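Work package 3, deliverable 3.1, input record:
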Amino acid sequence: MKKLALHWKILIGMLLGLVFGFVMLQIGGGRAFTEDWIKPIGSIFVKLLKLIAIPLILASLIKGISDLKDISKFKNIGLKTIGIYIVTTVFAISIGLALVNIMQPGDGVSEETIAKLTETYSKNSSVQAKIAEASKQMDSGPLQFLEDMVPDNAFNALSNNKLMLQVIFFAIFLGIAMLLIGEKRAKPMKALFDSLNDIVLKMVDLIMLSAPVAVFALLANVVVSSDDPDILYALLKYAGVVVLGLVLMIVFYCVIVATFTKKNPFWFLKEISPAQLLAFSTSSSAATLPVTMERVEEHIGVDKEVSSFVLPVGATINMDGTSLYQAVAAVFIFQALGLDLTFADQITIVLTALLASIGSAAVPGAGMVMLVIVLESVGLPPELLPIGLALIFAVDRPLDMCRTVVNVTGDATVSMIVAKSVGKLGDPKVKNWDDNYDEVK
Ligand code: ASP
């Protein structure tokens, strides 16, 4: 297996994991065996990726900003990034709305299926928890998100993976102050973070050595914890519309990569594929972030000045796949329950899904919490909320896996475009885990 490219090894691991999961479902005690003995391998891998996410964001952003020669460059990169993120997200929502209106997946759902899904899932603790979490978020004021972005204790922010935006804020603030004290006096700090950055990227290489085995465990566990196949079948048309929309988004990214950077889109997909496969296996853009950064910088050639800002910010606020899914799911639920949505309602969906995808955490299942807010904004009565979520719950995990791939690909695409626009898209410089191994072994 040594000469096989990483993405092939990961793909083989995924396929074997799927097969293993299906076999375990047929064997008495197979489910418990997988949960006890296989699942922990995947969980450890995800933990390792999360472990290095905060040090990587901190080191690479501080390095990225302190490498800038003037601060106005940073403003330019920042404004471009946010602007392009909003455009791609609105595009994703529009594709979702167009497809769900043309294909009408909700019309085919029978009363019987609705009753069955409602009975199975509406009282499910996970559905109830998502509704409760959404109502907590809705009670906050319009500027709450800005307030939440500013930490009152740097070490507190650094010790919580959920506070990624606070870490980004702190790192940018520190980086700008370093620029302002001048190169000479900032030198020791810069050397420290440069070195930390190299070290953490090496940790990514080392963690990735176990990726093929880890994805095997992750996917085997997804299979053994999945729902009754009959229920999945009833939702096939809805799931098909979401997946079609997500595929169209990947095509869209390829077109913009080719148009704006003049790079071959197939090369782009090949280089980014390990990050995509991990996004699929973990359903978490946050856990995938270290790998996305490593691929984009070392294998695609985006300069750290750009990637260190665009990717962590993207992982937290840019979720094209999630917003597309929210648009399709919201309209599907209305269709299935026989409720009308006006054109104005659909515009409301565009706006709330945009805000909701910005507000969604980059972790499994977060998109569904914000879907509650989208549904409420277009007037779904609160008593129908659990039924609405019950309708889509069974296929949420597989769709989450797919939309996370799009979320990650979107971030990588935007980083390339921003890099190209500021002259920071160069040639890739691939580093391997054992580049200096001979010196230390
Ligand atoms: N799992 C997604 C992500 O991490 C968010 C979601 O759509 O639930 O990007």
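The chain has a mean pLDDT of 92.
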